[in-house]
Design goal:
- The protein is mainly alpha-helical.
- The protein has four domains: 1-30; 95-175, no CATH class; 180-283, no CATH class; 284-346 and 349-353, Orthogonal Bundle (Arc Repressor Mutant, subunit A), CATH 1.10.10.60.
- Strand 1 (231-236) and strand 2 form a beta hairpin.
- 60% of the residues lie in helices and 5% in strands.
- It has ten helices and three strands, in the order αααααααβββααα.
- Strands 1-2-3 form a three-stranded antiparallel beta sheet.
- Residues 30-44, 51-82 have a biased composition (Basic and acidic residues).
- Residues 295-336 form the Myb-like domain.
- One of its GO terms (biological process) is 'de novo' cotranslational protein folding.
- Residues 30-82 are annotated as: Disordered.
Length: 353
């Protein structure tokens, strides 16, 4: 009975809810404030959409403009490079033409000299001179030979050939040389700081100052200075070596060359080219047992390499240096470095720290 009475009530409630919802919807649809708010929201949404579209469009236009500017810039650079290359090509062609003209002129001026066998000048000598001189030098030589007799022209050609030979020799020396501090080539200013007769003096100086093996350093410029007697010679494990004046290259002050290749110790009575006795080399591989502070060549080399490998700011530097030197302690390594530093000339810093 109650259930039957509840059903009409539920139905009436639903109808009432539907009527209220319809009424509220009608009010929302016709209320001017609500309509204005909805229009404002719709307009704001449209503005955001348009702003996003405009931003994207501006970015695309900016990217297109940047790409166009980059393309124009590259085209201008390519054009400038092409113009510079063309100008350079024209200049080179002009120089080649002038050079051929000067060579032909020199051959014409040197023809009487070549024809006369008394001067001993061949056609190959003239061609070699033409190949070795540049345009300015050729022009100067031709201007000097113009209007002169055959003897004067032969003298000038001989001078040009000698200058060419000297220039080739200097270039060969420079190609086989090593630059070192002070502007000299293979100049070992630290050599006087080591005792003569010490088998490792030249080795230490060569390796430490130039970073090259002593054999290579001693053999540099050997051909150019062949026949020059060394002055102030001393000995080492590679034979007698000395500091010689460079006659072929005056700008080289002191040059270390090897004057003997025998590794056998020389007798105390052996004489050098200037009559002075050469000190016997000290065998580095067999130091005196009674002297624990004696250093061999291998130990000195290991010490120098360790000093270069471990700089001042390295942690536990001396312990690591001593570990790299066989048979030596930290104290012995420090003493050796101090002795090497004291033997060097004042105000000379070769990196022994």
């Amino acid at each position: 009975m109650e259930r039957q009475n509840a059903m009409p009530q539920e139905k009436a409630k639903k109808v009432e809810y539907a009527r209220v919802r319809t009424l509220v919807d009608n009010v929302y649809k016709k209320d001017p404030k609500i309509q204005m708010r909805k229009e404002e929201q719709k307009a704001e949404k449209q503005r955001r959409k348009e702003a996003k579209y405009l931003t994207k469009k501006l970015q695309e236009e900016e990217a297109t403009r940047a790409a166009e500017e980059e393309r124009v810039r590259k085209e201008e650079e390519s054009k400038k490079v092409a113009e510079a290359a063309l100008h350079q090509k024209k200049v080179k062609e002009k120089e080649k033409k002038l050079l051929r003209k000067e060579k032909t002129r020199l051959c014409t001026l040197a023809a009487p000299v070549v024809a006369d066998s008394h001067f001993g000048m061949s056609k190959e000598d003239v061609e070699s001179t033409c190949a070795s001189l540049d345009m300015e030098q050729l022009k100067k030589l031709c201007d000097g030979m113009d209007g002169k007799d055959a003897a004067e022209n032969a003298r000038m050609m001989s001078n040009a050939l000698r200058n060419e030979s000297s220039s080739k020799e200097e270039k060969k020396i420079e190609a086989n040389s090593v630059e070192c501090p002070g502007g000299a080539v293979v100049v070992l200013r630290a050599v006087p700081g080591f005792f003569r007769g010490d088998g490792g003096d030249a080795l230490v100086a060569s390796l430490y100052l130039l970073g090259h093996h002593w054999e290579a350093s001693c053999s540099l410029l050997h051909g150019a200075l062949e026949g020059v007697n060394p002055v102030h010679p001393w000995t080492c494990d590679g034979g007698a070596i000395g500091v010689v004046p460079s006659l072929e290259a005056p700008h080289l002050r002191l040059v270390l060359v090897r004057t003997a290749s025998s590794k056998a110790p020389q007798p105390a009575s052996s004489q050098t080219a200037n009559g002075k006795a050469v000190v016997d080399p000290v065998p580095d591989e067999a130091p005196s047992v009674a002297d624990p502070d004696a250093w061999t060549e291998a130990q000195v080399l290991a010490l120098l390499q360790a000093l270069k490998a471990f700089p001042k700011d390295a942690s536990q530097r001396w312990e690591r240096v001593a570990a790299a030197v066989p048979g030596k302690t930290v104290v012995q390594c420090k003493k050796k470095v101090a002795a090497m530093r004291d033997n060097l000339p004042e105000q000379e810093n070769w990196g022994i720290d």
